[in-house]
């Protein structure tokens, strides 16, 4: 994936949902470094609409935002490669385009950028008034899944303003379910970008833990927690991309593909819940 390191970027870290607690013994509390956070986020590809030079299709900000003077620009950041391509197709099929716009649209393509690169640029350009803002485009199906789960838990929700994530808990008042990866004893705590993947893990846990459930998180809250908290279990957190993104990652050369654990399912013996 092309690292567009010359871009400025920012993310609205205003999530209200914070992560819970997983007991891992008496490990010392050490805050994650910026590089460690970036490496976790690098497992998630974000899809941008760019021209042939890799520059994003963006528009200027018309008004001041967050107390800053206007001067920056904004671009769409898609969680789905297919939806990013659908947007390009829509532009190409639009009528009444002037010749200049037709040439611009003809060169558009979908470029995948690691979320970690966007985060890194956030840290480097947060004071730059001319930075590029990213408007995240969550997948409609995942938004619906998140809202359904929230309503099932008794919450009254009419909209979900961030990118949803899903974590499996042993019970609403207990910690998150870790999984073993590979053939050793390494454990990770998966945060899924797909409700379907979380349901796969929940199905494995339910027989021994009938109160197990799926907690709905949001990507803003996750990022905020990784930056601010000193909880030792955060070292074990991994972000699991959607099935669509994992399929895309499998097409990449091995030296460019992120190290992402497989989503748990009943037939996957290398990624199994660690029932306690």
From TrEMBL:
Coiled-coil positions: none
InterPro entries: Tic22-like
Origin superkingdom: Bacteria
Pfam families hit by this protein: Tic22 (PF04278)
Region of interest called Disordered, as start-end residue ranges on this chain: 251-276
Positions with biased composition (Low complexity): 258-276
Transmembrane segments: none
PANTHER family: PROTEIN TIC 22, CHLOROPLASTIC
Name of the molecule in the record: Tic22 family protein
Source species: Trichormus variabilis N2B
